[in-house]
Amino acid sequence: MEAPVGIEPEAPTAEAVPLETPEPTAGRLVRLRARLSRSQNVFGKSLLGLLARDRLDDDAWDEVEESLISADVGVEATREIVERLRERTRVLGTRSPDELRGLLTDELVAALEPDLDRSLKTDGKPTVVLVVGVNGSGKTTTCGKIARVLVADGHTVLLGAADTFRAAAADQLATWAGRVGAEVVRGPEGADPASVAFDAVRRGVETGVDTVLVDTAGRLQNKVGLMDELGKVKRVVEKHGPVDETLLVLDATTGQNGLEQARVFTEVVDVTGVVLTKLDGTAKGGIVIAVQRKLGIPVKLVGLGEGPDDLAPFDPKQFVDALLGTDA
Ligand SMILES: Nc1nc2c(ncn2[C@@H]2O[C@H](COP(=O)(O)OP(=O)(O)OP(=O)(O)O)[C@@H](O)[C@H]2O)c(=O)[nH]1
């Protein structure tokens, strides 16, 4: 099949990069859990320390509240968590550290809405995934990491480099493609992102791949500009069929600020899941609670490092256990 004009599909082996074999899933997840505990359990320990005091008076509860707010949980969610915790502690007359830890675990897990569906769709023909978010949030890296996991699970993947704003982004994506054994479709620098996205999905349909991941540019110059660009990308891609997932990549270290930017994306495109990156770089893991609550969208994946295998499915119970050091 001839390549579309101006678009350069690249065979997986074009760069002659030796294919890497990803770490088996079980080992990878254990390692990532340990990394999550390392970055988060200062917060967990301080919370548990407060609850282990001899007297749980108003001051102690205020400190619990402050501790949650400073971990980016958000004011509203914090109030609810503390209120419920106080009430349950009072009713049960709970004093033992283990029981308190149990109650805190329950409340944090409940705040993370454990029943939300966090699976990534994989049943499209092909499954089309748009990856959106502000510059530098980790979109390109996340596309590469997702591709790697999918390929390791036996899926075929095509990467679409619709971030034509930054030339290096397409190079970066092509390098990932070479590493994981995926095809990449890219356009010349400054090409229309929508046309690259269109060609990537067309190519994916032609070659019968399982998943097409489209990396987009996240210039947040203003909402109208973003709406125009992402809206167009989505519309043209939909000429081939539905977009199955739109993943919003959010940098956890940007805290409440990042949340405001994220909200703009959710107003522009129908986001189906959040990927919270750089959770290894912040002790403020409470942002996961704030993100879900404010955006009303499940966190599906978390990024825990720059390495190719540093992406994990988000599991509320495991997350809270890592936070409170219960999984050690
Ligand atoms: N520590 C850490 N770094 C990460 C993580 N995810 C991505 N990064 C790093 O964040 C930086 C930006 O990542 P990119 O993937 O280039 O971000 P982008 O959103 O595609 O950026 P643009 O192409 O400019 O829009 C890179 O140095 C990544 O290695 C993560 O989970 N943890």
UniProtKB/TrEMBL annotation:
Region feature Disordered, mapped onto this chain: 1-22
Pfam families: SRP54 (PF00448), SRP54_N (PF02881)
The protein's enzyme class: hydrolase
Main location group: membrane
Species this chain originates from: Phytohabitans rumicis
EC number(s) on file: 3.6.5.4
Residues engaged in binding GTP: 133-140, 215-219, 277-280
Protein's cellular compartments: Cell membrane; Cytoplasm
Molecular-function GO terms, alphabetical: GTP binding; GTPase activity; signal recognition particle binding
Keywords in alphabetical order: Cell membrane, Cytoplasm, GTP-binding, Hydrolase, Membrane, Nucleotide-binding, Receptor
Membrane topology: Peripheral membrane protein
Gene name in the database record: ftsY
Catalysed conversion reaction: GTP + H2O = GDP + phosphate + H(+)
Function: Involved in targeting and insertion of nascent membrane proteins into the cytoplasmic membrane. Acts as a receptor for the complex formed by the signal recognition particle (SRP) and the ribosome-nascent chain (RNC).
Subunit structure: Part of the signal recognition particle protein translocation system, which is composed of SRP and FtsY.
Protein family: Belongs to the GTP-binding SRP family. FtsY subfamily.
Residue ranges of domain SRP54-type proteins GTP-binding in the record: 298-311
Name of this protein: Signal recognition particle receptor FtsY
Cellular component, GO annotation: cytoplasm; plasma membrane
Matching SMART domains: AAA, SRP54, SRP54_N
Membrane found in the keyword field: yes
Biological process terms in GO annotation: SRP-dependent cotranslational protein targeting to membrane
